[in-house]
Every structure is written in structure tokens, then in C-alpha cells.
């Protein structure tokens, strides 16, 4: 696809769209990484085991797989800009469900709210990722997505601390105390704990609705991804479906595995720290460590891509670091082991920014559908953490991290050769 043909009219004013999309990525990060607190919080409030608690991640991320095809239709009907507003409103509805869920301490309602939030995010991700990819030259797409990643992970670092301060206050003492309480008194304590999420989620609802209105009223330009330039028409001649692009199919698998390991690095670190004997009062800050490492990686991407290093080479390095840090977490203990999980943020940082341009650039009229497929790949964040939770129950939370090693091997292969499959 000719990037300049799509962006001639916005080249001089691209700062404004980038700022708006940056605000969206901040919201993505804030809502998404609240899960790292919700997992240990709901484990206590709803009396769950490891496997059950990681259904938080499953309910949230499986929405990407279920809803991504509908996301493409939504964008065809509403366009990119208005589609983003629709996604934000759906997220607000999901957050609203948390209020009755907290009042009744009903885990199924929490999961429903998370699924609806994930559904709204599926629309937003389907729109915003190709948007920021197309909003400029393909070779610097990873740099622009890295800027978005900083917005995302800055929010992802703040969200667990803010929510954790509210809902995990005195959680260690509460956990010890309820074990000795009679059933009636225990229910009262757990109901009080559950009610702590009502005010934070009321604030989230307000922010989502206001941002939806601002996006609707903004001057974000529409980008026509259905038109192709001469090169794209030539390379896509005879192509009738996404299955004609083997690099895209492997890109979907890579995205699936990548999001799985990224979510594990961010969402399991608090519970894992607790399993290593570290108090929740301290462990609630650990997600900030993962996010800080990701921000460091994004900063390096902004500085070095594409001037000093190609985005696919950055992806290779990240995959190898992922293997190294996973093994470090498995073979060390306590704060050192937790530190290796946090360092996975650095290993993960430049994978996502590289997958998008390596996969969708040049697809022309197939771009929206390909974007939808990649967003479906975000369901890896649903499946792999649940498998991790089951392994944590069967073995222990530390040995369960072995699941990460083959995932990073696939990511490394895609960076080396997989993204070239089927391309002339």
C-alpha cells in the first residue's frame, strides 16, 4: 500500500492524530493492566484458586477472538474515528457491570464485565493499530507504535498502583484474619472488600464516556485502506482471502503467543511475588517494574528504529532476551526471580510494534480484515495465562513459567524468516 497516498493530507498535521491515538493507548493500558490487581484481589474476595483467578485474563482477552470479526464490520459501518467512540462506550458498559458485581460479590458478573470491556477494546485495537501503522512511512511504523507503547505502559504501570492502593490495602492482614473468622463474619469482611472497586470503576466509566465524546468531536482524518497503489495491486493480484498470505497466518500465531507471554509478565507478577513470600503490600508495585522495562524498550525503539536497527532485528533480540529472562526467573528465587519477570517487559517491548508493520504493510484492501485477524491473536492473553494458572496449581507458580520458552522461540523464528513467507 502506498503510505503517502493515504497520508498526503495529514503529513503536516499528523501530530494531532498521534496525540489523540496516544490518549487511546493510555486508556488501553490503564484498563488492561488493572487485571494484574484484579487477579489477586478477586482470588481473595471471591475465594478462588489459581486457575479460577486467571479466568480474569481469559474473560478479558477471549473477547478479542470472539469480537474481532465484528470489529471489522463496525469499522466498515462507522469508519475508524466513530468506530473508536463506539469501542469506548462498550468499554464503559463493561465497567458499569462491575458495580452490581461488587455489590453481590458475583464472580461471573465480574467476568462478564471484563468480557464486555475486552469487546470494546477489540474495536479500538482493530482501528488504532493499523491507523498508527499507516499514518506515515512503513519503515518507521515500529517507532510510532513504540511511542504509543510508552503511553500504554505508562498507564499500565500506574493502574495497578492506583487500584492496588484502594482494593489491596491491608489485604495480607485481611487474608490471615478471615481464616479464623466464623462464616457470617467472613462474608461481611469479603463483601466490604468486594465493594472497594465501585468508586474506581465509577471514575473509569466517566473517563471513557468523556473520551468517546471527544473522539467523536475530534478532527481525526479517515484513512482509506481499501485502495491500493500499483505495487500492491501487482503483489496482491489473484489473492482472494487472507489465507493467501502465509506470513499473515504465521503472524497471527506469533501475535497469539506474544500477547500470552506479555500478559503473563504483567498480570502474574503480583501473584507470583506473593507466592515467593513477598507481601501483597509490596508486590502490588511489581507490575510497575514490568511496565518500566517495557517503556525503556520502547524508548530504545524510538531512538534506534529504523536509523540504526531494522524492526525485525529488534524483534530477534527481544525474543532471545525473552528466553534468557524466562530461564532466569525459573532458576532463581525471591526478588531476583521477580526481577527477571519484570525484565520480560524489556524483552516484550519491541515485539508488538514490529509484528504489525511486518504483517499488514502492503495488504491494501485486505488491511482491515488482516487487522481484525491480528486482534483475534490477542486472545493469546486469554489462553496462556489460564494454562499458566493450571500449571501453577499442578506444579508451582515458578515452574509454570516454562510455558514461555517455546513461545519466544516462535517469535524469534517469525523475526528471522516467518515474516518473509509468501512474499515476492
From TrEMBL:
It is found in: Cell inner membrane. The keyword Heme does not apply. One of its GO terms (cellular component) is plasma membrane. Belongs to the major facilitator superfamily. FHS transporter (TC 2.A.1.7) family. The chain crosses the membrane at residues 18-39, 51-70, 82-101, 107-124, 145-168, 198-216, 248-265, 285-305, 314-332, 338-358, 370-388, 400-417. Keywords: Cell membrane, Membrane, Transmembrane, Transmembrane helix. This is Glucose/galactose transporter. Intake of glucose and galactose. GO terms for biological process: D-glucose transmembrane transport. Coiled coil: none annotated. The keyword Transmembrane applies. It is a multi-pass membrane protein. Its main location: membrane. It comes from Olivibacter domesticus (Pseudosphingobacterium domesticum). One of its GO terms (molecular function) is D-glucose transmembrane transporter activity. Pfam families: MFS_1. The lineage of its organism: Bacteria, Pseudomonadati, Bacteroidota, Sphingobacteriia, Sphingobacteriales.
Amino acid at each position: 500500500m502506498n503510505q503517502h497516498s493515504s497520508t498526503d493530507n495529514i503529513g503536516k498535521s499528523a501530530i494531532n492524530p498521534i496525540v489523540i491515538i496516544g490518549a487511546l493507548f493510555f486508556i488501553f493500558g490503564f484498563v488492561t493492566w488493572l487485571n494484574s490487581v484484579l487477579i489477586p484481589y478477586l482470588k481473595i474476595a471471591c475465594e478462588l484458586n489459581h486457575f479460577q483467578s486467571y479466568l480474569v485474563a481469559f474473560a478479558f482477552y477471549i473477547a478479542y477472538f470472539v469480537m474481532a470479526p465484528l470489529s471489522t464490520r463496525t469499522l466498515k459501518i462507522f469508519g475508524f474515528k466513530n468506530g473508536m467512540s463506539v469501542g469506548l462506550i462498550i468499554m464503559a458498559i463493561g465497567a458499569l457491570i462491575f458495580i452490581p458485581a461488587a455489590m453481590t460479590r458475583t464472580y461471573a458478573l465480574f467476568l462478564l464485565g471484563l468480557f464486555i470491556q475486552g469487546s470494546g477494546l477489540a474495536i479500538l485495537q482493530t482501528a488504532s493499530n493499523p491507523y498508527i501503522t499507516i499514518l506515515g512511512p512503513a519503515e518507521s511504523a515500529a517507532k510510532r507504535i513504540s511511542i504509543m507503547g510508552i503511553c500504554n505502559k505508562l498507564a499500565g504501570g500506574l493502574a495497578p498502583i492506583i487500584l492496588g492502593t484502594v482494593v489491596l490495602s491491608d489485604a495480607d492482614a485481611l487474608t490471615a484474619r478471615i481464616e479464623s473468622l466464623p462464616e457470617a463474619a467472613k462474608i461481611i469482611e469479603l463483601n466490604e472488600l468486594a465493594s472497594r472497586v465501585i468508586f474506581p470503576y465509577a471514575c473509569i466509566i466517566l473517563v471513557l464516556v468523556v473520551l468517546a465524546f471527544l473522539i467523536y468531536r475530534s478532527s481525526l482524518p479517515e484513512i482509506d485502506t481499501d485502495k491500493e497503489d500499483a505495487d500492491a495491486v501487482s503483489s496482491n493480484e489473484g489473492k482472494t482471502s487472507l489465507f493467501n498470505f502465509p506470513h499473515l497466518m504465521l503472524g497471527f500465531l506469533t501475535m497469539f503467543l506474544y500477547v500470552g507471554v506479555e500478559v503473563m509478565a504483567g498480570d502474574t507478577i503480583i501473584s507470583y511475588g506473593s507466592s515467593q513470600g513477598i507481601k501483597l503490600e509490596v508486590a502490588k508495585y511489581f507490575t510497575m517494574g514490568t511496565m518500566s522495562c517495557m517503556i525503556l524498550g520502547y524508548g530504545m525503539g524510538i531512538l534506534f528504529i529504523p536509523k540504526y536497527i531494522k524492526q525485525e532485528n529488534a524483534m530477534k533480540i527481544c525474543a532471545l532476551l525473552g528466553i534468557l529472562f524466562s530461564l532466569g526467573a525459573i532458576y532463581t528465587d525471591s526478588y531476583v526471580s521477580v526481577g527477571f519477570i519484570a525484565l520480560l517487559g524489556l524483552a516484550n517491548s519491541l515485539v508488538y510494534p514490529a509484528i504489525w508493520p511486518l504483517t499488514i504493510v502492503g495488504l491494501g484492501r485486505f488491511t482491515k480484515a488482516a487487522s481484525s485477524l491480528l486482534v483475534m491473536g490477542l486472545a493469546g492473553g486469554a489462553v496462556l495465562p489460564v494454562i499458566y494458572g493450571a500449571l501453577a496449581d499442578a506444579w508451582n507458580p515458578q515452574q509454570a513459567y516454562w510455558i514461555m520458552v517455546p513461545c519466544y522461540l516462535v517469535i524469534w523464528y517469525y523475526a528471522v524468516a516467518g515474516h518473509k513467507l509468501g512474499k515476492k
